[in-house]
């Protein structure tokens, strides 16, 4: 089967797949957090993520009271690098 062959083609395929998987994970996190589906994360919706909720005012760069996708993903990146620092 063609798909299976491509997936087992080796290191190059893996190198291409992994960054895409990270982006997809961010998109899934955003959609999961955006409970009402308006493409904005409100403070209420962020209650499910205490780590980002605590930083809400900082992450809301334009001060409009909601996080758009870019603001949310910046928060995710910050949270990830913070965890990496604490682990290392
Ligand atoms: Ca929302
Ligand atoms: Ca905002």
Secondary structure elements and their pairing?
Elements: H1 2-7, H2 11-33, E1 41-42, H3 50-53, H4 56-59, E2 66-67, H5 69-87
Antiparallel strand pairs: 1-2
One calcium ion binds at residues 34, 36, 38, 40-42, 45.
Q: Mind explaining what this structure looks like?
A:
The chain has one domain: Recoverin, domain 1 (Orthogonal Bundle). 64% of the residues lie in helices and 5% in strands. It is built from 5 helices and 2 strands, in the order ααβααβα. It has helices spanning 2-7, 11-33, 50-53, 56-59, 69-87, and strands spanning 41-42, 66-67. A two-stranded antiparallel ribbon has the order 1-2. The chain is globular and about 35 Å long. Bound molecules: calcium ion (CA) (2 copies). One calcium ion is lined by residues 60, 62, 64, 66-68, 71.
Classify the helix fraction into a percent range: 55-70%
Structural class, judged by helices and strands?
mainly alpha
| CATH topology grouping | Recoverin, domain 1
Instruction: Report, as a whole number of angstroms, the end-to-end distance.
Output: 42 Å
Name the poorly predicted regions: none
What percent of residues are in strands? under 5%
Rg, rounded, reads: 16 Å
Sheet with most strands: strand arrangement = 1-2
- Total domain modules: 1
């Amino acid at each position: 089967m063609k798909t299976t062959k491509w997936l087992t083609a080796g290191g190059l395929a893996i190198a291409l797949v992994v960054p895409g998987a990270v982006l997809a994970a961010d998109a899934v996190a955003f959609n999961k957090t955006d409970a009402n589906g308006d493409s904005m994360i409100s403070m209420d919706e962020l209650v499910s993520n205490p780590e980002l909720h605590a930083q809400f005012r900082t992450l809301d760069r334009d001060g409009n009271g909601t996080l758009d996708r870019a603001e949310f993903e910046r928060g995710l990146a910050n949270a990830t690098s913070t965890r990496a620092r604490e682990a290392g």
